[in-house]
Amino acid sequence: MILPIVAYGDPVLRKVGKEIDAEYPNLKELIANMKETMYNAQGVGLAAPQIGKDIRLFIIDASPFADDEDLSEEDRKVLENFNRVFINAKIVNEEGEEWAFNEGCLSIPDVREDVFRHETITIEYQDENFDKHTETLSGLAARVFQHEYDHIEGILFTDKLSSLKKRLIKKKLENISKGKINAGYRMRFPNAKKR
């Protein structure tokens, strides 16, 4: 089932997610709905807060980035197969030069800005079967992970912009929260006027 994506301005996007365990109600169905919602909106990641749930869960399918011709063959292979569920994720180490990449977010449609993030991260997480994993990610895989991870920490990519950039997009963000935008997918707006 396609769920509405929560728009910028909703308080749930500012909550730090709670850890969950295998007893979380209807988890398999929730993950399936999140995947359907993400693909419907043509996203590469979706975090639980973006569908109104303040839990430490997000999904990623970075395979659309594998088509980028500037990538090495190795990076392309990583991204083609980077389709996972992350539960109770933690970043345990960040390293390398921070680099800029133009990011967007399904909760903030039509806003794209360059964001600096670490090149390489080491992460711990559980998959949908609650098996534990530790791995190191770099490049675009690390970037997509960091963007979704920020969501379960109550952080949006716009928080990482300079004060000048924030001022320049302020009106756009206000309009998004009021529902004055057509994203092309179902959304829930916190400050939309009732009609």
TrEMBL record:
<keyword id="KW-0648">Protein biosynthesis</keyword>
<keyword id="KW-0479">Metal-binding</keyword>
<feature type="binding site">
    <location>
        <position position="105"/>
    </location>
    <ligand>
        <name>Fe cation</name>
    </ligand>
</feature>
<dbReference type="InterPro" id="IPR023635">
    <property type="entry name" value="Peptide_deformylase"/>
</dbReference>
<protein>
    <recommendedName>
        <fullName>Peptide deformylase</fullName>
        <ecNumber>3.5.1.88</ecNumber>
    </recommendedName>
</protein>
<feature type="active site">
    <location>
        <position position="148"/>
    </location>
</feature>
<keyword id="KW-0408">Iron</keyword>
<feature type="binding site">
    <location>
        <position position="151"/>
    </location>
    <ligand>
        <name>Fe cation</name>
    </ligand>
</feature>
<comment type="similarity">
    <text>Belongs to the polypeptide deformylase family.</text>
</comment>
<dbReference type="GO" id="GO:0042586">
    <property type="term" value="F:peptide deformylase activity"/>
</dbReference>
<dbReference type="GO" id="GO:0046872">
    <property type="term" value="F:metal ion binding"/>
</dbReference>
<dbReference type="InterPro" id="IPR036821">
    <property type="entry name" value="Peptide_deformylase_sf"/>
</dbReference>
<keyword id="KW-0378">Hydrolase</keyword>
<comment type="function">
    <text>Removes the formyl group from the N-terminal Met of newly synthesized proteins. Requires at least a dipeptide for an efficient rate of reaction. N-terminal L-methionine is a prerequisite for activity but the enzyme has broad specificity at other positions.</text>
</comment>
<feature type="binding site">
    <location>
        <position position="147"/>
    </location>
    <ligand>
        <name>Fe cation</name>
    </ligand>
</feature>
<dbReference type="Pfam" id="PF01327">
    <property type="entry name" value="Pep_deformylase"/>
</dbReference>
<dbReference type="GO" id="GO:0006412">
    <property type="term" value="P:translation"/>
</dbReference>
